Amino acid sequence: MGCSSSLPDRSSGQLAGLNSENGGVSDAKNLRVKLVLLGDSGVGKSCIVLRFVRGQFDPTSKVTVGASFLSQTIALQDSTTVKFEIWDTAGQERYAALAPLYYRGAAVAVVVYDITSPESFAKAQYWVKELQKHGNPDIVMALVGNKADLNEKREVPVQDGIDYAEKNGMFFIETSAKTADNINQLFEEIAKRLPRPASS
Amino acid sequence: MEAAPSSSSTSTSTSSGGSVTFYDFLDRMRNPASLDLVRSIKSFIVSFSFYTPNPDNDGKKVQDFYLSMEAAIMEHPLWAAATFEELDSAMEGLEKYVMTKLFSRTFASVPEDAKIDREVSEKICLLQTFLKPEHLDIPAVLHNEASWLLAEKELQKINTFKAPREKLLCIMNCCRVINNLLLNASMSENHALAGLDDFLPVLIYVTIKANPPQLHSNLKFIQLYRRQAKLVSEAAYYFTNLVSAKTFIVDLNGKSLSMDEIKFEESMQAARLTQTNRATQIETSPTLQGQTDPTPTRMHDKEKDTSGGSNYPYMDAEAGELTVGDVERLLSLYKDVVTKYTSLYKVVRHLSISKTETPVPHSEGTSFLLTQPEGTNTKIDHQKGN
Lengths: 200, 386
Ligand SMILES: Nc1nc2c(ncn2[C@@H]2O[C@H](COP(=O)(O)OP(=O)(O)OP(=O)(O)O)[C@@H](O)[C@H]2O)c(=O)[nH]1
Ligand SMILES: [Mg+2]
What we know:
By secondary structure, chain A is α/β, with parallel strands linked by helices. Helix content of chain A is 26%, strand content 20%.
């Protein structure tokens, strides 16, 4: 379970941590979105979250990061901000039936698989179908092939991910929570794809 | 007047100062200028007595009422210069007032809810007899009886309050205790923080140890009657985790745990028998007890001093000694035992149901509206009303 990894990548481009607790107000310039992570056990969901959230903070001041409810605000180039409220789910089979409680009302679903595991890719497809059936109809979905650093053990070709995502209108990216590769990009790209409330 | 649950952490997502703001709300409502608001509140509350309970509809009605009152308060001269926080605390006061008044009408208002509460609680009682943290794969660094106990206590307070916000705070406080445990473990033991991976199992375990009263009804009540704008973010997340824990417990079977499935079934069965047995000793006459005590070893003991009644002559038998001729006798004894056990189980179940339904006493909410406040009027009315 331990997310053993190199030090958090702090050179995160145009991403800037923003910490104003705005009381949950969401407006055209400051979005607050619920993001849920789904995927087989062990694909790296929790590591992706921790990498994304902790990369923005001093890794020693863990107290700023809630142990289980994590959120992270990013600033986009057009000076809008998006606060991701991240709902991690437990991938273990014994908790699988509980997933709908977590993805209900989510604006974003990030479905993760492990590029070294075809079973986890199959499971990802199962979650996509679940979301299409029972999720919020406007949900923004991303398909993530994680553990891209293990390319020599790859069993799911990049093209399979690309094709499946395209067929299902999803954004696709391969990441590594271990090296931090593409982690920030994942969230930035999601932020760009969010429907914006009409500005008043 | 109940005390508001204290907010045990620095988190900003729940508004603070429960009772202070509630007194402030009551004060403003006593101001003649707010007569129109008072009228709306009063007629809304009265309107509820015209209908039979229908939780989903009731929830919707209350939520719509919150919204219309929010709009009215925002326009109201008394709140003309009010900040966002002041408006928010007025709304918190309103929620507390309305839901305290409507509590008995809306909490566990349909028989179905009481039934689920009972089932959840009974299942937890059984699980309590054998469930260990290991069965949920809770890592050793998180085995902390003191923290668990603290979290349980927070959860058990849930029926001390009537207002949805305060009930929700009990859940939040419980979850914060667990969070602190996770944070401390991650700092002192270098145990990697892993979000929900560790949180949910601990919450499930704590919920089982706590067996919080009327868990299902409390969750439903919060879901329906907490102002929707407030059941978001962190509050929604922790709330959902408790819903999730409850769902897990309800559906829990031999496959849900890190435990041999047969062992699980045996443990559940043993727990059922122990409970039946305990109830039997308390509730039934000695003769009946002697005949039907379902714990095998005890049955064996009692057999000797029970005059007449049924005999169980095979209790000391070994499989090798039995002959085909014994089958008929064994079968009839078996049927006899099962029949007795089944009817006893029904009786005991019935008894324990009526026992557990003793309601937890609630202090009545403050009344500023009703000209004849029911029974226990509170200090505020006397101090300030006159
Ligand atoms: N090489 C490599 N290992 C990774 C990567 N991401 C996660 N891991 C490892 O994969 C294992 C599982 O990661 P988690 O983040 O706990 O997986 P999860 O999806 O949260 O699993 P569940 O909580 O059981 O659903 C850990 O041992 C991580 O160290 C990655 O990008 N590369
Ligand atoms: Mg995880």
